[in-house]
From TrEMBL:
The lineage of its organism: Bacteria, Pseudomonadati, Bacteroidota, Flavobacteriia, Flavobacteriales. This is DUF4919 domain-containing protein. It comes from Seonamhaeicola marinus.
């Protein structure tokens, strides 16, 4: 199967936002941890996750940021984990030509993966492709809205051009997916600089040589796994 569709549904959406002048805000994890534990608040994490799983379209930016970055405090957060269903999904996607039953299988397997990892951008995108081919507009909009919530949170943190304005991500996989969203290609080299990932990017019209990503939750999770 050709991979050219990857993130095609949100590239235009994000490039418009990226072109506008935006005020970036770094992530204060200690503040987020405190806010999402307040049961009386609209930022209480179970409330946010329930709304996300229902594809609520009324999230404001503060809520989106608490939803995405607050997941780093969830017991199920596993930035380097992989679902048992991922291999089966890749098997379907390797087919040269996908038929109706294949698109249905992408949705079935994708649903299983998203139950384990609700912020899996790649799986969300695969499902968008499947729903479009099945002409299921309601489900397409449902997943697209969820994807926008995640992306809005990430791009509110920076532009990636330097450490001070790095994109904050919960998964290293989101680094590569964000490059695709911005119309950039990975240049082949990755470096860990303090608590930042730096990815080089291929030659582009914007003269961008690389992007910075803040990955503190990933590093904390990795360190915790080594202590077990």
């Amino acid at each position: 199967m050709k991979r050219g569709f990857f993130f095609i549904y949100v590239i235009g959406f994000c490039l418009v936002l990226n072109a506008q002048k935006r005020d970036f805000e770094s992530v204060k994890y200690n503040t987020i941890e405190k806010n999402i534990a307040d049961e009386a608040s609209n930022l209480f994490y179970p409330k946010l996750m329930k709304r996300f799983l229902e594809s609520d379209s009324t999230f404001n930016l503060k809520e989106k940021r608490h939803l995405y970055y607050g997941y780093s405090f969830d017991e199920n957060y596993s930035p380097y984990g992989s679902s048992d269903y991922s291999d089966s999904l890749r098997g379907v996607l390797k087919k040269e030509q996908l038929k109706t039953n294949d698109f249905k299988e992408i949705i079935r397997l994708g649903d299983s993966i998203l139950k384990e990892e609700p912020f899996d951008l790649r799986t969300l995108n695969y499902q968008l492709y499947a729903y479009e081919n099945l002409e299921n507009r309601d489900k397409f909009k449902f997943r697209l809205n969820q994807m926008k919530v995640i992306i809005d949170a990430i791009i509110s943190t920076g532009d990636g051009e330097k450490k001070k304005t790095a994109f904050y991500v919960l998964y290293t996989s989101h680094e590569y997916e964000l490059l695709n969203i911005l119309g950039l290609q990975f240049g082949g080299r990755q470096s860990l600089i303090e608590h930042y990932d730096y990815l080089t990017v291929a030659k582009n019209d914007h003269g961008i040589e690389g992007m910075y990503f803040e990955i503190t939750p990933c590093l904390n999770s990795l360190a915790k796994s080594f202590r077990k």
